[in-house]
Write a structure and sequence with these properties.
mainly alpha, three-stranded antiparallel beta sheet, 9 helices, 7 strands
Amino acid sequence: MEVITRQEAIEQGLVRYFTGKPCKHGHVAERYCNGGRCVECSAEARNKFYSSVKSKRKSVGIFRLNEAQKLGLDFYDNGKPCKNGVFGMKKTKQKGKCFCSACYKETKDYIIKWQEKKRRENGIAPRSFSRQTKQEKKEVYKKWLERNRAKVNEQQRKWRQSNKEKLRPYQSAYNAIRWKRTSIPLAKLHLEQIVKVYEKRDYKTKQTGIEHHVDHVVPILGKNICGLHVPWNMQIIPAKQNRIKSNKWETV
């Protein structure tokens, strides 16, 4: 390392210079032209200052992002307000992002704008449907349904064909209303219980291997009497017995 005086270093426009002599703390190292302080002494003073500041911050629970990451903290407080002037915890995993209501709203709006921009670039309608009122949603769905009526009908038809047993309790309730063997409020009130009766029939058929039917104890289309389509007028019997019984009602 070339030995040079401070004045010569200043004249040459250098930041540091080396005299080859030890400083007052015994460091034989370069010195700064601005102030003439030893580089080693400056480093020690800087580390001492940062250590004291760091200990003060930790004592009141204030950390920097890299410190929080090393400690494995999910949230940390850096003692500074966010861009909206709110003091509080920051998210470590999101690089110190604040999660106050104002910052969250800004982030959400930014994401929505970005998504709509990408959807427009890809030729897809913007996702503004979620921010519409209930009436506006109905109007949008109604227009969509008119454009896709044939497709929707075909899908519904296929589903009904493949789920006939699931629809059986609802179809029976509809028929009972049509034949005036129950009312709409009564059907809604007991629908859940009626569905359970049909589920129990399916379970019994699967367990025994014998087909079972849900029969009305008092027939709802009897010749001399008409019962109601209610849970307490239903029973599960084998299909063969139900066909023999038909719509007759035998009293003891």
